[in-house]
């Protein structure tokens, strides 16, 4: 249960004055948090939970879709999600002696991170990117469909949708429903006490992890242990993210506010526990075209 109304505060890592060098370190830590499965307190990584939800949403029509990350940043969890989802699909298909068709993923952003994306796509034949700036509120549908090679398009928002104020979020939802075939919004936080407790653990967690994952980055170690900017920003921004995160009902209210026709859409939502010790959950909402407008959200 949410402890307060949504509050649109501002995150430090989003600010123009925050050094890009430190921003990249914070983003690297957040990407690690998506991939991480901590012994004893986590039964699965958040990225694997997203992969499982996508597999369920696509059902038996997985090969008909391309998944487009509209706020990919430097790549975030999407390369990991792509790898996990296609590994799961390959394993299922092998067990049934069927032909395997991979699901393609495309990285896009308003501010493309081409160097990072080029490195990511080298590791997978199913990962691509669009080098042009892509505005999620006014996406060039023809360009995206061309890149998707005729497949249906699902828009993906990983730890991103809470960044948009109501006006922009409404525009993005309207554009998505008018031009795409589905969308998935995934957040690792919400406005509940267990979520805030989970966020509180991030500061000590990101004091413990750098020697194991960022040992080859003197800058990361310096801004963790000498001047602890990285764990501090992650934790403070985590609280702000939680207060900005919408419930499924609030997202549906924005859809209705946009005035877009949703008669052929079905909406669903849920939450999956990623840290049982604190009650931390991965919260998601999705919409799929062609489902007769039923609402499970």
Describe this structure in words.
This protein has 12 helices and 7 strands. The chain is of the alpha/beta class and 297 residues long. Strand 2 (104-107), helix 4 and strand 3 (127-129) form a beta-alpha-beta unit. Helix 7 (193-200) runs antiparallel to helix 11. It starts with 19 loop residues before the first helix and ends in an 8-residue tail after the last strand.
Structural class: alpha/beta
Strand content: 15-25%
User: What is the overall silhouette?
Assistant: globular
Q: Total number of β-strand segments?
A: 7
Q: Could you estimate the helical fraction of the residues in percent?
A: 40-55%
Work out the radius of gyration.
19 Å
Alpha-carbon distance between the two ends = 15 Å
| Physical arrangement of strands within the biggest beta sheet | 3-2-1-4-5-7-6
List the quaternary state of the chains.
single chain
**Residue-averaged pLDDT:** 92
SSE topology sketch:
Layout: H1 20-35, H2 46-58, E1 65-69, H3 78-95, E2 104-107, H4 114-121, E3 127-129, H5 141-147, E4 152-158, H6 166-179, E5 182-187, H7 193-200, H8 202-208, H9 210-213, H10 218-226, H11 229-244, H12 248-258, E6 265-275, E7 280-289
Parallel strand pairs: 1-2, 1-4, 2-3, 4-5
Antiparallel strand pairs: 5-7, 6-7
Characteristics of this structure?
single chain; 297 residues; alpha/beta; seven-stranded mixed sheet
Task: Summarize the structure in short.
The chain is α/β, with parallel strands linked by helices. The protein is 44% helix and 15% strand.
């Amino acid at each position: 249960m949410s402890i307060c109304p949504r509050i649109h505060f501002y995150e430090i890592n989003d600010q123009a004055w925050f050094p890009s060098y430190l921003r990249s370190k914070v983003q690297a830590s957040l990407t690690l948090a998506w991939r991480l499965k901590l012994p004893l307190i986590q039964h699965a990584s958040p990225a694997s939970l997203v992969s499982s939800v996508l597999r369920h949403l696509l059902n038996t029509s997985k090969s008909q879709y391309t998944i487009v990350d509209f706020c990919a940043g430097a790549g975030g969890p999407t390369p990991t999600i792509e790898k996990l989802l296609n590994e799961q699909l390959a394993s299922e298909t092998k067990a049934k002696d069927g032909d395997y068709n991979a699901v393609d993923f495309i990285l896009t952003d308003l501010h493309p991170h081409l160097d990072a994306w080029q490195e990511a796509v080298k590791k997978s034949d199913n990962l691509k990117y669009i080098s042009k700036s892509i505005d999620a509120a006014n996406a060039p549908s023809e360009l995206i469909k061309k890149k998707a090679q005729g497949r249906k398009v699902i828009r993906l928002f990983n730890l991103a949708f809470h960044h948009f104020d109501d006006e922009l979020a409404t525009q993005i939802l309207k554009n998505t429903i008018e031009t795409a075939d589905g969308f998935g919004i995934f957040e690792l936080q919400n406005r509940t006490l267990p979520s805030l407790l989970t966020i509180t653990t991030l500061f000590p967690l990101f004091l413990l992890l750098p020697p194991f994952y960022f040992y080859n980055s003197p800058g990361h170690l310096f801004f963790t242990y000498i001047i602890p900017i990285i764990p501090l920003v992650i934790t403070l921004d985590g609280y702000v993210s939680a207060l900005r995160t919408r419930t499924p009902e609030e997202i549906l209210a924005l859809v209705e506010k946009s005035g877009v026709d949703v008669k052929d859409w079905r909406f669903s939502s849920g939450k999956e526990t990623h840290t049982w010790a604190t009650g931390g959950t991965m919260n998601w909402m999705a919409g799929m075209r062609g489902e007769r407008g039923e609402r499970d959200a």
